Amino acid sequence: MPGKFMNRKAFCIFNLTLCVFAKPVDASNPAKVLLSHGNASVEIYLFGATVTSWKVGGVEKIFLSKKAHLDGSKAIRGGIPLVFPHFGTIPTSTLPQHGFARVSTWSRLDPPSETETATSVAFTLSPRAVPAALAAKWPHAFRLTYTVTLTTDTLTTTLKVENTADVAWEFTSLLHTYFATRGVAHVGVKGLEGASFVDKVAEGAPRAVESRTAVIVAGEVDRVYEGVDDKAEVTVTGTGHGDVVVHRTNLPDVVVWNPWTDKAKAMADFGDDEFDNMICVEAGSVAKFISLQPGETWTGGQTLKTA
Ligand code: BG6
């Protein structure tokens, strides 16, 4: 609302502490949406609706690979790629790993909305915007709405999935958040003690129960923690970029991933040494398929909060 926006600018002149300023589009790059609120900011590419930066007080919280493709030719390596309609690869689908949401170009809905406490913007995706070859592999009618909300100390990303078909279908989904680190050996992911997990690195992908108060990285890590109580806060500590608490809503599973040295070298869009600069802590609903009846919706999301 331009009128409201002008009023807020005028308000900011008198009260800098509550100053809110939203720049919906980066003039130099129309494929990217920028929001700021107080001293926090977020960048979101329309490609994949991928958040690629979240800064609080000038400190970057999110990892983006120096080799990431930002031209829509490949899923963005870093940020918060959106996984839909399935996590990983599954025997019943020929879609690529993690589905098509992260490689489709989303549309921004209304202009960002601003209040004194938050700035928010939403994106939508439906089948006609999915690359045709991928849409053909998952021929279901759907509408996704992804809302990104920024406050001075939080970033909330919420996905709404609607079944617009006349038959039921099922899916899994995940927010594949890459946190920036200065030396991943210093990082601890707290809040997963007692959770059952699948270890995707170990031979045969065995199940075990996490016994540590903090998950650490001292080699390749790829674990799917299942059914972690929504109320359990997961905290990413020791990143060198400030601790972040992950609050989850309707996302019971948490994936912790670091490719370590060999897999880093094998990824063309990831620097050989960048395994040291990131850890993925991914809130999702991936252990069981979610079934949606015609007309039904499902909503899941996370709030990242500076600690
Ligand atoms: C994680 C998976 O979520 O994503 C890993 O658990 C995978 O197995 C990683 O390697 C990265 O996936 P991609 O497709 O972005 O290389």
UniProtKB/TrEMBL annotation:
Pfam families: Aldose_epim
EC number: 5.1.3.15
Any GO MF annotation of the entry: carbohydrate binding
Record-annotated active site: H176, E282
Enzyme class, first EC level, given as a word: isomerase
Annotated substrate binding sites: R77, Q97, R102
GO CC list: cytoplasm
Signal peptide annotation: 1-27
SUPFAM superfamilies documented for this protein: Galactose mutarotase-like
Protein name: Glucose-6-phosphate 1-epimerase
